[in-house]
């Protein structure tokens, strides 16, 4: 078999939708799996919508997800240009081939593609008029995902509009031929176009590529297809919400594909190795934010603390939890405690903001609950002098000093813990208490306890 050449052929819209990202990813994975070539072709024939900004969103999204292309914008390649808006000469040349073969005609100023078959006049329900139809032999598509699909075109269709602009079906097929594309992996919404495309391939005397139409991504609730307004639909938002690209990529690879075992978290190398058409689901897949978050949390826990801090810092800054000049060592020490608890970076400020902000919120329910057992102010007044004098102020010393105090008072050391945590953080839970106090440091802890006691 000739070397695999696949392409991702987006029309830039200003958004990088999760459905497009999935199509791009499946093409990229297939290219990497087979050692083939991944082409990025920009279908920018709609001049109004195709701005530089729209292109940038797309290319940035691809780069963020780590999908590098072997041919296309920025990198070039032997089959360029890779923007349809720059390929008019190629379309003219291919149109001429069809004209020379007698497969076109002009009607109402447009250039039409002439199907082969017996012609007859029939009433068209949609147009509410008599029109010419064609009994063309059905086109058979041996789709790598859907299996055998049979469909007969019965009307000629336009190739070049009145204003001289070529239509999608024509340029899409011409480019797939001119660029030597061997496999077309795209959304199921294009399955209904495929018989037109196959008719064009046949008219050019070219064997059509292998098609693989991938099912829809449904929104989290309901039966509809995910639209750009649904939460989680836009790749650019994952980046600003602090999701890890590796987690998003892993998650999207599982939207419509699975390695036929229970595995979910997989290295990209593993996915590349296992990815193939038989693993693509026939049924639609459903977006599941919880599953994505769980995967993201797993990836977050694996980061080394330097990378974690690097990613967390701007989000904490944006949320107002840390200032630009936050003490680097303190930030890293806090994040070392919080990383194992973090589910996402955008909720990190809620999780650990109190380490940095002195006006942290006091959770009322927790306050009521701990006051039921014993007066927290009394407990804290008891240990305050010990904390003020403790040297060094670390987890081990805290442990022995508090234990000694508890023993002297005939208490268990844990008796002090809820009050200590609540006074210093306003919360019921968090990282292990003694390391947490040690990281906060004596001054912060003492000041907070004094303020709590009042
Ligand atoms: N520009 C088309 C789209 O964005 C490409 C379809 C195809 O992959 O053939 O849907």
TrEMBL record:
It is an enzyme of class 6 (ligase). A motif ('HIGH' region) lies at residues 10-20. CDD domains: GluRS_core. Residues 3-107, 136-293 form the Glutamyl/glutaminyl-tRNA synthetase class Ib catalytic domain. SUPFAM superfamilies: An anticodon-binding domain of class I aminoacyl-tRNA synthetases, Nucleotidylyl transferase. InterPro entries: aa-tRNA-synth_I_cd-bd, aa-tRNA-synth_I_codon-bd_sub2, aa_tRNA-synth_I_cd-bd_sf, Glu-tRNA-ligase_bac/mito, Glu/Gln-tRNA-synth, Glu/Gln-tRNA-synth_Ib_cat-dom, GluQ/Sye, GluRS_core. GO terms for molecular function: ligase activity. Residues 311-453 form the Aminoacyl-tRNA synthetase class I anticodon-binding domain. It comes from the Bacteria. It is found in: Cytoplasm. Keywords: Aminoacyl-tRNA synthetase, ATP-binding, Cytoplasm, Ligase, Nucleotide-binding, Protein biosynthesis. ATP binds at residue 228. A motif ('KMSKS' region) lies at residues 225-229. Its EC number is 6.1.1.17. Pfam families: Anticodon_2 (PF19269), tRNA-synt_1c (PF00749). Transmembrane segments: none annotated. It catalyses: tRNA(Glu) + L-glutamate + ATP = L-glutamyl-tRNA(Glu) + AMP + diphosphate. Catalyzes the attachment of glutamate to tRNA(Glu) in a two-step reaction: glutamate is first activated by ATP to form Glu-AMP and then transferred to the acceptor end of tRNA(Glu). Monomer. Belongs to the class-I aminoacyl-tRNA synthetase family. Glutamate--tRNA ligase type 1 subfamily. This is Glutamate--tRNA ligase.
């Amino acid at each position: 078999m000739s070397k695999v050449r696949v392409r991702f052929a987006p029309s830039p819209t200003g958004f990088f939708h999760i459905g497009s990202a999935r199509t791009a990813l499946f093409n990229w994975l297939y290219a990497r799996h087979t050692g083939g070539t991944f082409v990025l072709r920009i279908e920018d024939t709609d001049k109004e919508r195709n701005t530089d900004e729209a292109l940038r969103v797309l290319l940035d999204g691809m780069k963020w997800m780590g999908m590098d292309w072997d041919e296309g914008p920025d990198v070039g390649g032997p089959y360029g240009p890779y923007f349809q808006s720059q390929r008019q000469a190629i379309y003219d040349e291919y149109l001429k081939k069809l004209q020379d073969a007698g497969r076109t005609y002009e009607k109402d100023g447009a250039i039409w593609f002439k199907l082969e078959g017996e012609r007859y006049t029939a009433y068209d329900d949609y147009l509410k008029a008599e029109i010419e139809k064609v009994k063309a032999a059905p086109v058979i598509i041996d789709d790598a995902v859907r299996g055998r699909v049979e469909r007969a075109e019965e009307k000629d269709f336009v190739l070049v509009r009145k204003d001289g602009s070529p239509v999608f079906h024509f340029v899409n097929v011409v480019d797939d031929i001119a660029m030597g594309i061997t496999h077309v992996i795209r959304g199921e919404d294009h399955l209904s176009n495929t018989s037109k495309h196959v008719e064009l391939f046949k008219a050019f005397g070219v064997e059509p590529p292998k098609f693989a139409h991938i099912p829809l991504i449904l929104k989290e609730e309901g039966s509809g297809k995910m639209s750009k307004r649904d939460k989680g639909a836009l790749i650019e938002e994952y980046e600003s919400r602090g999701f890890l690209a590796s987690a998003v990529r892993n998650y999207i690879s599982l939207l419509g594909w699975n390695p036929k075992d229970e595995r979910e978290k997989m290295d990209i190398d593993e996915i590349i190795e296992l990815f193939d058409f038989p693993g693509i689901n026939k049924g639609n897949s459903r977006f599941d934010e919880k599953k994505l978050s769980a995967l993201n949390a797993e990836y977050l826990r694996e980061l080394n603390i330097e990378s974690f801090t690097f990613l967390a810092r701007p989000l904490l800054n944006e949320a107002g939890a840390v200032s630009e000049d936050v003490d680097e060592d303190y930030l890293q020490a806090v994040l070392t405690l919080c990383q194992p608890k973090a589910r996402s970076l955008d909720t990190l400020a809620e999780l650990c903001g109190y380490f940095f902000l002195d006006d942290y919120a006091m959770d009322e329910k927790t306050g009521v609950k701990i006051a039921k057992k014993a007066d927290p102010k009394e407990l804290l007044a008891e240990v305050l002098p010990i904390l003020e004098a403790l040297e060094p102020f670390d987890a081990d010393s805290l442990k022995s000093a508090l234990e000694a105090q508890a023993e002297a008072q005939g208490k268990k050391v844990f008796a002090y813990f809820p009050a200590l945590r609540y006074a210093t953080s306003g919360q019921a839970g968090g990282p292990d208490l003694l390391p947490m106090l040690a990281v906060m440091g004596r001054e912060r802890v003492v000041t907070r306890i004094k303020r709590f006691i009042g």
